[in-house]
Amino acid sequence: MVGSATALDGGNLFSNNSSQASAVLGLRWRLFDFGRIEAQIAQAQEREAELLAAYRLVSLRATADVEDAFTELLQFEQQVLALQQGETALEHARSAAAAAYQQGVVSQIEVLQSDEKWLQLSDARLQAQIAAVRASIQVFKALGGGWSNSADAAAG
Length: 156
Hints:
Structural class: mainly alpha
Largest sheet: none
Radius of gyration: 39 Å
Distance between the termini: 63 Å
């Protein structure tokens, strides 16, 4: 038995002296163990606090990633909407310039310039849509989603 003394002679096993020595040595052993046990408890509590702080940090970073991804997605969607409205307005301007050209009011250069502006805006809208799709993928990943490797393994 750890922390206790035993009698050397079987006849003294149940005598008062044997019990006292056993009790005193057991008590002293336990008194010396308390410092070590308390140190182990303190070490375990510190480790728990460290792990909790690390968990909180990871949780905060994950939350920030999700928030950033959603913010970026909303910004690109708003940009797409604004560019769509501008594209619609330029389509009307293009039609008006083409009609004015047919009537001889404006030159062909003005019609081509309105076409160029519409194409530039249309390209910007498509780029914003691509960015919005990429941002939605980032939202999916930030929420814990990911691409499955099983599909790649099945294809290869």
